[in-house]
Design a protein that fits this description.
alpha/beta; TIM Barrel; three-stranded parallel β-sheet; 8 strands
Length: 263
């Protein structure tokens, strides 16, 4: 296989550093791919344009997630949220981004899987499929929402799995081996470290805390996934570092993980 790309989330760009300087620094650090965690259509599009100007790849787009539980609720809020999710697909189509990352629930007590919410997610999947965009459902605190859709779309090429290493460690405390369940459907990664404290989703650079990245490397290797190794980090945890030093440190950690996976 060719050397897989290394990527990073770039939400800090446009805040403490300009779009042009920020994406230039990302490129200079060695990264080849990027994404942003928070979906605000106009701002997200500006990230995409600035990244592509530096020759960086946007191979995933993260759909809005903060109020994702609205998708399961009766009424106008759920319908408005579905339209926002469809806008993510439209932006992918416009900029030739192949995959949308989608959360299915939020918090410790989300609504149960129900007919109204399921129908909205089915509409989202159908909309994405019609535009040639893949949906990658991401592991959160609850298995039931994810299990429902992964089973429903078990024979579909339009739905896959996004493994978030940090969520598995601090939301389900390692009690659910998501890659054993869905590793063969892996189509995206969110890689970060934490101290295995419940709900402490620290988003640290790999090897800075307590996740066993030898296991992470093994799971990725066994899955056969050959796509981007995408970091999802919180910049404020490294506020003592300059942007360039933060990016370089993050890249070296991801390169170490890549070497563990691919040799």
């Amino acid at each position: 296989m060719t050397t897989r790309k290394i990527g990073i989330n770039t939400d800090f760009i446009g805040q403490e550093i300009s779009f042009e300087e920020g994406y230039r620094a990302v490129k200079e650090a060695g990264f080849e791919a990027v994404f942003v965690c928070d979906f605000i259509e106009e701002t997200t599009e500006r990230h995409i344009v600035a990244a592509k100007a530096e020759g960086l790849c946007f191979d995933t787009l993260h759909a809005d997630w903060a109020t994702i539980n609205n998708m399961w609720s009766e009424g106008d809020e759920g319908e408005r949220f579905l339209e926002k999710m469809k806008a993510t697909v439209a932006l992918c189509t416009k900029h030739h981004i192949p995959t949308v990352i989608v959360h299915l629930s939020s918090g410790e007590n989300p609504p149960h899987v129900n007919e109204k919410g399921a129908s909205r997610f089915h509409m989202l999947v159908a909309e994405a499929a019609s535009k040639g965009v893949k949906i990658a459902f991401e592991n959160q605190r609850k298995l039931d929402h994810l299990a429902y859709f992964m089973e429903y779309y078990r024979q579909s090429e339009t739905v896959g799995f996004c493994w978030d290493t940090g969520h598995e460690s601090c939301f389900t405390m390692g009690k659910i081996d998501f890659m054993s369940l869905y590793g063969e459907r892996l189509c995206a990664l969110h890689i970060h470290d934490n101290n295995k404290i419940y709900n402490d989703d620290a988003h640290l650079i790999p090897f800075d805390a307590q996740i066993d990245f030898s296991r992470v490397a093994q799971k990725i290797r066994e899955s056969g996934y050959e796509g981007t190794l995408m970091l999802e980090l919180k910049r404020h945890a490294y506020a003592h570092l300059s942007v360039k030093d933060f990016l370089r440190r993050a890249y070296l950690a991801a390169a170490k993980l890549r070497n563990m996976i691919d040799g």
